[in-house]
Design a protein that fits this description.
The protein is rod-shaped. The chain has 463 residues and is mainly beta. It has four helices and 19 strands. The strands form four sheets. It has an eight-stranded antiparallel barrel. The chain has a four-stranded mixed β-sheet with strand order 9-12-10-11. Strands 14-13-16-17 form a four-stranded mixed β-sheet, with no helix packed on it.
Length: 463
């Protein structure tokens, strides 16, 4: 009955292959008396002291004591024995096993049969055995050998601290082969439409193919060795934070995980327009409720660390999914490693998906104002206007002189996209007809360029 119950609930937790600790197994023993023995069934106990020789074999020193009650109020008999035994597990390192032992003492005792270790944490567990018991009798001349069913039920108690689990093997990301170089990235007008082709364009085949449009960046996980970037990421996009691992069965971040999260903090600082969910996931080992609680603690550990790095808590939520959303099989070590992960999911976004450089104080980057006797720039007089036109891949005028407090407006009249980029600020991508404005509150000389056409430069002189 004990074996049937244990079989119903499974074999529990398996032992680690290198768990060679000694253990003790005290068990109560019950024997169904041989019909040829003038005695009732026996009660007693068995004590085993053992250790693991390999992943599936244990060696034991065993001792037993049995007391048979005599029939019809006759005298009881006692059997004692000490010897050796072995367990050969059928499923690796836990669960059902074949048992064999030989003991000597008052009689020669031989036991063979099936046992079951139902293990809990740290290899502590319940042990049950159903054995064929043979006793070679040397005192009863009427019978040479008794053969009886014998049952043991007790505990398995290990000594000492359990060995640390092996560190998981690092997951090596598969690096995709780089795409072939663009066909038309030579900075020329290959399709004859009067516009220089965008450097990343692969077409350049028709004057109306729109190949001067700069495609928006795509949200993608980092290539090994590169920093994490959230450029192009919008609502619903998910990045798996590979390498953000924890101590075994804990929510404590490893040193490598903290290093990766430093990069995540930097990426979040460059995208102040987004909010994210930090989702924790586990493999299929353990109960659903335990895994959900563990993954929730781990996602909160990630949030706490990012908060310490300056990311506002209002931008982050956490959720533990446990084992409910596997991305690989839980039947292999490699699959379980992929399932143990932390994911960053964009839940809100109000920007265009491109990182924003941190602001730099204007007076920290401007050059000193020109000397009083310096000649005014030839292309414009002081306060001679507040507009710059972008056309024919040039800023016109290239140099504009304005008074302090003037707001300058740039208007793109080219068929190609452009940027207006200063050292401390800049515009979003300007399509044809789009404008960018900036107010200059301090005197100085401000140079700028187009970030995708560096040959295009200009200067604003503020007096």
């Amino acid at each position: 009955m004990a074996l049937a119950v244990l079989a119903t609930f499974g074999s529990g937790t398996a032992l680690a292959q290198d768990d060679n600790r000694f253990y003790i197994a005290p068990m109560a023993t019950y024997v169904l008396s041989d019909k040829d023995r003038d005695a009732d069934d026996a009660l007693g106990g068995t004590l085993a002291l053992g250790t693991r020789l390999s992943k599936s074999v244990e060696f034991e020193l065993r001792g037993t004591y049995l007391k048979y009650k005599g029939d019809d109020d006759g005298e009881s008999s006692k059997i004692k024995g000490v010897g050796f035994g072995a367990n050969a597990f059928l499923k690796g390192s836990g669960g059902p096993y074949l048992h064999l032992d030989v003991m000597g003492g008052d009689e020669t005792l031989f036991n063979v049969g099936l046992g079951w270790d139902f293990l809990f944490k740290n290899a502590f567990g319940i042990r049950a055995e159903a054995l064929y018991h043979s006793q070679s009798n040397s005192t009863d001349d009427s019978h040479d050998e008794y053969k009886e069913p014998l049952f043991n039920l007790g505990l398995r108690i290990p000594f000492g601290k359990a060995p640390e689990p092996p560190a998981p093997a690092p997951v090596m990301a598969v690096v995709a082969e780089p795409p072939p170089p663009p066909v038309c990235s030579d900075g020329l007008d290959n399709d004859g439409d009067g516009l220089i082709d965008f450097p990343a364009d692969k077409g350049c085949s028709s004057a109306d193919d729109g190949d001067e449009t700069d495609p928006a960046p795509k949200c993608a996980p980092p290539i090994p060795g590169q920093a994490i970037s959230l450029d192009g990421c919008g609502v619903g996009d998910v990045i798996v934070l590979r390498g953000v691992n924890f101590d075994f069965d804990k929510a404590t971040l490893t040193v490598n995980a903290k290093s990766i999260l430093d990069g995540v903090a930097t990426a979040l600082e460059s995208r102040p327009d987004i909010k994210v969910e930090l989702g924790g996931h586990t493999d299929g080992k353990g109960s659903d409720s335990y895994n959900e609680a563990l993954s929730d603690r781990r996602s909160k550990s990630v949030k706490d660390y990012l908060t310490k790095k300056g990311i506002a808590t209002s931008r982050m939520t956490t959720k533990g999914y446990g084992e409910s959303m596997p991305v690989a099989t839980n039947d292999t070590d490699e699959g379980r490693e992929l399932n143990r992960r932390v994911e960053l999911k964009v839940t809100e976004s109000s920007g265009g998906g491109v990182s924003v450089a941190p602001p730099v104080p204007v007076d920290a980057t401007v050059a000193p104002p020109p000397a009083a006797d310096a000649p005014a720039p030839e292309s414009a007089a002081a306060a001679g206007g507040s507009s710059v036109v972008i056309e024919n891949f040039a800023f016109s005028p290239a140099t504009l002189t304005v008074a302090v407090g003037t707001t300058v407006t740039w208007t793109n009249q080219d068929g190609s996209n452009h940027f207006v980029k200063f050292t401390d600020a800049g515009s979003e991508r300007l399509k044809k007809g789009a404008t960018y404005t900036r107010t200059f509150t301090a005197a100085g000389s401000y140079t700028y360029e187009c970030s995708i056409h560096p040959s295009m430069t200009g200067t604003i002189v503020v007096q």
